[in-house]
Design goal:
2 copies of one chain form a homodimer. Chain A has 140 residues and is mainly alpha-helical. In chain A, 68% of the residues lie in helices and 9% in strands. A 3-stranded antiparallel β-sheet of chain A has the order 1-3-2. In chain A, strand 2 and strand 3 form a beta hairpin. In chain A, helix 1 crosses helix 5. The relative contact order of chain A is 0.12. Chains A and B meet through helix 1, helix 5 and helix 6 of A and helix 1, helix 5 and helix 6 of B. The structure holds a DNA duplex (23 and 23 nucleotides).
Chain lengths: 140, 140
DNA sequence: TATTGTTATACTCTATAACTATA
DNA sequence: TATAGTTATAGAGTATAACAATA
């Protein structure tokens, strides 16, 4: 697969596989799906509306309905009526969701750190610096 | 989501979303699923056995059977009997699979280049350098 | 006996279209 | 009329377990 990508894209795609692997392995370790772990990560910052959650995850609203349903059924999240708009819901973590989100996050970070820590310290600093700058561009 | 990751892992995860988005958008543009495009990318280097393909994609063998079935049904790949082992199959691209693989690859690269090209030239060089080194570590 | 791959089964994930309820 | 979210439906993706054929 590497051969057909130019350098920067090659490496980005290659590393994406590692991040996906970290998410797959970690979520499985805690009896979650990768998508459920994603939800827990997004909600760690606090409850959000379904619309906002869907945009964060790049999902159609009906896809999100199902995902939140399954998360709720597993006791990870709860739907709370929006106090201002009776059509809307906010989604927040349960204690269990908070706990698994923390542990899952830690598992992903640990796996990724295990990889990046093998770089020379100067390279680690450069990696963080350039990636952070690139991530900022992607956010604009 | 950013808030709970330390710098390097944060940016890696954030950029993974961009790569996934590039794959999602591109594959959709060509009427493929992201997983099917992945298969085309792996097979671009030449036919491989089911076992090797499964390892490359980190899939259980039964999952791969289904994925290859659907790719075959769409005319993207063909199964060819292994000449040495009558239990085994090799999977290769059809002309259509080759064509869509090329175009899909180009679409992903174009999207990612559009992002990285916004970095200063010196940063682009640093990005490629460090990411390539990190990818090499992940391959060991 | 061990290995290669498929089948059977059960979920999860996702999108499109149609719908309900509220704004 | 427009928006927030759900339901109905269909297909894709994945894993586990049991199985067939070959080594």
């Amino acid at each position: 697969m590497e051969a057909i990508y130019p350098p920067a894209a090659t490496a980005l795609v290659r590393l994406t596989h590692e991040v996906e692997r970290a998410f797959n392995d970690t979520s499985r370790e805690f009896g979650l799906t990768p998508q459920q772990l994603q939800v827990l990560c997004v909600l760690h910052a606090g409850p959000v509306g379904m619309g906002e959650l869907g945009r964060a995850l790049h999902l159609e609203k009906s896809s999100l309905t199902g995902l939140v349903d399954r998360c709720e059924r597993r006791g990870l999240v709860v739907r709370i009526r929006d106090s201002c708009d009776r059509r809307a819901w906010r989604v927040g973590l349960t204690d269990e969701g908070e706990r698994l989100g923390e542990q899952g996050h830690q598992g992903v970070v640990t796996r990724l750190d295990k990889l990046t820590s093998r770089l020379a310290p100067a390279d680690q600093a450069r990696l963080t610096d350039v990636l952070t700058r690139l991530a900022a561009l992607a956010d604009e």
